[in-house]
Amino acid sequence: MEIHIGVDVGGTFTDLAVSIPGENRHIRYKVPTTPDCPDVAIVEGIATVLAEHGLDAGNVIRLSHGTTVGTNALIQRKIGKVAVVTSQGFRDLLEIGRQVRPKVYDIHLDFPKPLVPRRLRLEVRERRRADGGAHVPLDEDGVREAGRRLASEGIDCVAVCFLHSYAYPENEERAVEILREVLPDSVYVLSSTEIYPEFREYERFSTAVLNGALLTVVDAYLDRFSDEVARLGVPAEPKVSQSSGGLMSVHMTRKLPIRACLSGPAAGVLGAAHRAPAAGFRNVITLDIGGTSADVSVLIDGAATEVHNRMLAGFPLRLPALDVNAVGAGGGSIAWIDVDGLLKVGPQSAGAHPGPACYGLGGVEATLTDANVLLGRLNDQALLGGRMQIRRDLAEASISRLAGELGLDLMETARGIIRVACATVVKAIRPLSVERGYDPADFCLFPFGGAGPLLATETARDLGIKTIIVPPSPGILCAEGLLNSDLTADFMMTALMPLHEDSHDTLNAMRRELRQKVEGWFGHEAVPAGQRRVQWTAEMRYRGQNYELSLPLEGRELRAEDCEGLVATFHAAHKRTYGFHSETETVEFVNLKVKAVGLYDKPPLPTLAERPDAEPSSRRRTFFTTGTWLDTPVLQRDSLAAGQALTGPAIIEQLDTTTLIFPGDRGVVDAWGNLIVTLAPGNES
Length: 685
Known about the structure:
The protein is α+β, with helices and mostly antiparallel strands and 685 residues long.
C-alpha cells in the first residue's frame, strides 16, 4: 500500500496532504509551525498522521515538501559567510547594481547592504571579451593569493564571478579548481555559471552570492530533516519544491538551495492548476492567504506563467520561478496606525508564536484573524476541528485598543481591518491582471490558504469578478499541490546573435550541448525512459531592447526555414504582447532554455460520495457589511453533498479554513467537492 505525503511549511501552520492511491484515500492535517526549527513540526505532523490512521511508515514512497528555510534565513541575515573572487575592476558591482532606487518616489529607501562586505570581495587579473578573446589571461598566482587571504577569514563559501563567463566559463572553472586546492575542504567554492549561466553580470553575480549564503543553512536543515524522517522509518528520500513549481532531489537542493526559496507559493499555484481546469475553469486568479502573507498568481488557459527576474530579501534573483506576487496580508497580519493616522494592516505578522490575540498565547496586537473572530465570521470557540481554543474576549480587547486610538466603533474598526487587507490584496492582483491587459471580470477567483476563503468575496467584488471556486481543502492546497508535482530541472545557454536563416547550425550545436546535460541529469536522478519529457524555449528580442519574449521551441533539429518561422512567430508574439511589431527591425536571439521533467504518477481527484444534503450544525450571529448582525447557519464542509445548493448568508466550516457566502450570493457543490460561489449582481450587502 503506497503512501504519498506532501508537506508545506507556512509562517503559522505546517500543512500535510497524504494520499493512498491504492485506496483512493486522502488525509489532511495541520500542525502549528515551529519557526526556529521547521523540521520539528514536519516530523511531528507525519508521526501523528501515521499513528492516528494506522499507517506504516515503511510504505511512504514519496515525501515532497516546500520550505521557507532559505527565505527566512536571508530575511533575518542568519546565513553563511560568503566571499567573492571577481574580475579586476568589478569588486563593487554587487553594491553599484543597476543604479536605480528600490522605489521611484521614496528617496529615503535604500537597497540592503550587500551580503558580502567589501573586504571579502577580492579582484584578480582576468578579462575575456564578449567574443571570447582573452584580453587579460587569468592570473593563477593571483587566484592562489586570494585563496590564501580568505583562508584565515573563517568563510563558508567563495563565489567566483567573472565577466562573460556565461559563454566562456573556462576561467571561472580554473579559478574554482585553484581555490579548492588552497582553501580548507569545509569551504564551498562555486562559480556563477554553475548556478545559472546567463548574461547580465549583476543578476548572475547576485544569484551566485545568494546561493552561496544558503549552502550551510540549508545543508544543516536537510541533515536534520532527513535524519528525523529516516528515524520514523520512512524509506523515501525527501524531495524539495522549487520556485519554478517542480521538485528536486536532496542532492540538487544541497547544491542549489536558492532554487527552493519561493517553493511554498509555487506549490499552491500548481494545486490550483490541477483542480481548477478539472472543474471547468481555465482562466483563474489564485489567491493564497496564509498566516503571514497573501500570494497571488494568474492561470491563463489552465497554465501558470513563469518569470526569471525576482527580488528576494531585497536582492535580484535570476532563476526560473512561477509568477507569484506576494504582499503582507495574512491572517496573522497586525493592524496598526501609521504616522498619518490611517489604519494599516501588515506586513508585520504575529506569526505562529505568539500569534493573534485570540489564540491566547500571549499576543496582544489586533490582527486580521481577531477581526474575523469579533465579527462572527470565524468560530469564536475553537479552530482546527476543536484542537485550537479561541478567546473572543482577547480579540475584542486587542481591537478595542485600536478603536480607541482611531476614535471608531468596535465593529467599524474590525470591518476596517478587513477592508484594508482586501485593498492590499487587490493591489497585488492588479499588476498581474489589469496592468497586463487582462480584465479580472473574465476570470474566476480561486481562494485557498487558511484565510483565503474569508476574504474572497470582498476581494472578488472589488475586482468585478463574478465567480469564486473554493477547493475542498483550501488550507492544505499547497501541500496537495506537492502531490501533483514532477521532478524538474532547468538548463540554459546564452547566445546573443541576430536570428536569420543561417542561425540553425549554431542553435543546433547549443541544443546538443544542453541535451547532454539533460541526459546526465535524467541518469543521475534515475528517471525511467518512459517518464522523461523535455520542454524547449527560445528567448528573443528586437536588437536594442532590454527584455526578451519567451517562445516554445520544437525538440527536433532546426533548419533554415525553421529560423525564418521563428522570426515570424516572434513578430506575432510582440504584436500580441505590446500592441505593435516591426518587421524591419533585426530580431536577436538571446537564450536557449530547456526544462527537463521526470514525470510522477498523480493521485486521482476524488469525487464526493452520494449522501443527502447537509443541514446546519449550528447558527451564530455574523456581521457582514449591512451594519446589522445576521443569524447565519453554519454548515460543516465534510457533510456537504454533490449538487447541494446554498444561499447566503451561510458559513461553511472545516479543519483548515472557513468559507463565507454573503447575503444574496449562491453556492453549489460540484462533483469534486469544490464550492462554486456566484456573486449576486450589484449585491454589496
